[in-house]
Amino acid sequence: MNKTLFASLALIATVALAGTPAENAIQKAQAGLAAHPNHVPYLNSLAMAYARRARETSDVAYYAKAEETLKQSLAAAPANFEAVKVEAWLQLGRHEFAKALETATRLNKQMPDDVTVYGYMVDANVELGNYPDAIKAAQWMLNLKPGNVAGLTRAAYLRELHGRLPGAMELMQSAYDSTPFSESEDRAWLLTQMSHLSYVSGDLAKAEMYATGALGVFPNYHYAQAALARVRSAQNRHQEAAALLQQRYAAAPHAENQFAWAEELALAGRKDEAAKAFAEFEQKSLAESMLGDNSNHELIAYYIDHANQPAKALEIAKREIARRQDVFTRDCYAWALAANGEYEQAGIEIQKALQIGVKDPKLLYHAGAIAHHLNRPDQAALYLKDAAARNSSEAAVLLREQSQTAAR
Amino acid sequence: MTLRSKTLRTSLAMLMATLTIQQPAVFAASHREAPITALDQKADITDWYTFVSPERADKVIMILNVDPFLEPSNGPNYFPFDPGILYEMKVDNNHDGVPDVTFQIRFKTEIRAPGVFTGFVGNLAGIPAITALDGAGSEGFNLRQSYTVTMVTKAGSQELTAGMNTYAVPANVGPKTMPDYNGLRAQGVYSLGQGVRVFAGTVADPFYIDLGGFFDSVNLRKAAGGGVLPAMAEGDDQHNYAPNSLAGFDVNTIALEVPISMLTSDGKVHAAGDKEAVIGTYGTTSRHKTTVMGDAGAETWAQVQRLGNPLINEAIIGTGSKDKFSMDDPINDAQFANFVLDPLAAKILGSIGVPVAPAPRTDLLLLVQYAAPICPGCGAGDAGPVADLLRLNTGIRPTAFTQQKRLGFLAGDLSGFPNGRRLGDDVFDIALRAVAGILVDGKKYGTPLGDGVNTGTAPLQPSFPFMAPAYSGRDSVHAGPGQPGCAYYESGICPSL
């Protein structure tokens, strides 16, 4: 073999083995701290690097490390701006959205030019369902630093929530185009979002392409495994989908990931395994149900769609809707109302969820099913067709039933 | 706490972590105020002027200067306006802080002879000297820009330049290419009908200041009193006692002459005592933007910079807020009110021993609200929101060109800053004194602060567009410390210390 070629191949191998971006950031910050202990900027970098590693690995231990490092930083320099930023970020991670919004708003008053802080304001407002405020903050991100990736992805998500899927894809693509090649996890994340957007647009082939692309960029990336599993499930390849979701759950052992896996096991006809997974999920999810960072959306779906305990579902949904009014929580609430036979109210609530124009197959299916129960066949058909075109198999089934009834 | 891995919502927050955005942490230079604006030279507004014309008392002059520190010899393209920028002049006439009359100026560039090596050529290779902006004598005017002026009001928009060819006057390349530059420049003044005149092009920058002395952490020249002017310098509006950092530099200008009646809320000319006589103005630059909820094909703009009162963004607004300030609208300025009520600049003056009025500095609200003395007709209910607008009482008669005083209002010359702003007003000296508290108590806080630069280097002219013609590129020089430019000193050499 040509020596130069060999050398460069070896170099590529070294680079590939050198560690993930977060691992590198942790090492760099630790090296800095070794030379200058308690230096606040290094402490802040380390806290952020731990938090970032937590995302890469889904290992919560890194969150605890981030918290601990943050405490050191705040002890060394009380209320220092960068540390409070990390704090806001961690509050978002803990799903303490109202608190995160408060922290971010305070930071924004202190330094209105900080683009990242606007990002936190977008996230908290989106989670709370304050969409106009989220749009305003996202617009400031793009005004202050036109074309910044974090602003583009947020604007893309806001467009998606408002049903503007081609526009969302356009922004995700430009975010991808401006992400450096070395940022493998960011690129994989963006590809995963593009897979998701393709899926909800009804383009299964593209959804598959982007999901496999993401796994190529960052092997075993758990977000991408979930995206590909969704595609496989829609292709009726349930065994493959279940295998992917099992891997995802192993990498990121959270209740909601177990729920998705259990649902797929059921679809694959593996009833006993599904029942076991559902039972474990219920325990796990109940244990965290009262915390901010919970899996209540999945728990509600479980009680309605799998456990036939609609009263429990509604109780949890009422608690959630009091806390946040985003479209997905509204959808859970509407679906729980419907499961308890309160169709009129369910109809009102699902309309509130759909009001901003969101085109999510699950929400559209729920809207169709609720309209069906309300004896509004035309409206039901409209929603169900839309949902079916976006790969909702449940909607397709109900649509067939509906047309057969009509034919009789 | 557990880590959620599923929702896009939370993972967006996490993406932020990896895409660290640098904090603007440096104090930017004067003609480069906000950190982000400083990266966009073409959209950088250097100065905004509004005054009643000393030439025609029924007209208001608005001047938007952009693109700082243009070195006159910097060929081959010199200093075109940016066709990607929307330049705007905005007027609030009903005291609500929101523009009611807006003038939009946009440029187009044509390269008339793509093979020629320079934008401007004359008296060479059979090409005649450039003596005209169009037609015969314009053959060598290769890189040429035309522009449109559109007036926007609630009633709709009207292109004032419709059916006309209006050209920006190029930089002064030198005597061989442009043997009669002043004559060429005169052709760039266009009458647009309805009593409006416009001029756009490159001029000698009329602003004057000792930037080097100021930005070296307020290290003003000892020869000029070290920040407190000696009596001789204080009373001399004709000479400089410190080097003018803008000497020899050009700037791009858009100047508009508009009848007062086109700007007031009721279309009438008012006496100084009527509140309707007072307007608030500012200039902006904007670029195309990504709109979060934008539709494809719709033209939307992101404001890059605005300027109302001079030195507000440079000297008053904190560095962490300068970009937000630049991009926001004046109507939202209440968020920055604390910078005005307790200005850092006052603390700095206090720290070097200047008597300074105590915070909160409600006296400075005069710059950001409608009130006496600029608006004697305004009652308490007419102040309007806190908004950085350059306020002009159009009913106050303009001072004759030769009688104008550089200290404007402070020297009893009521047609000068902060009643609008004229080209010759020494806003740096005035602003320093205002920050110290001269408006609170002229005796107690009336230290004659100043940088010793009292006049622009190229003399202003008595008629529209009033600014001196661009410096000749071939003969360009700058006057710094130790160089000629300070006529009062021996051999006219400016002091270094």
From TrEMBL, chain A:
UniProt protein name: Tetratricopeptide repeat protein
Membrane spanning residue stretches: none
This protein's record includes keyword Signal: yes
Superkingdom, natural source: Bacteria
Signal peptide segment: 1-18
PANTHER family: CELL DIVISION CYCLE 16,23,27, CELL DIVISION CYCLE PROTEIN 27 HOMOLOG
Lineage, opening ranks: Bacteria, Pseudomonadati, Acidobacteriota, Terriglobia, Bryobacterales
Keywords noted in UniProt: Signal
Automatic annotation (TrEMBL), chain B:
Keyword terms: Signal
Signal peptide coordinates: 1-28
Keyword Signal: yes
Record-given protein name: DUF4331 domain-containing protein
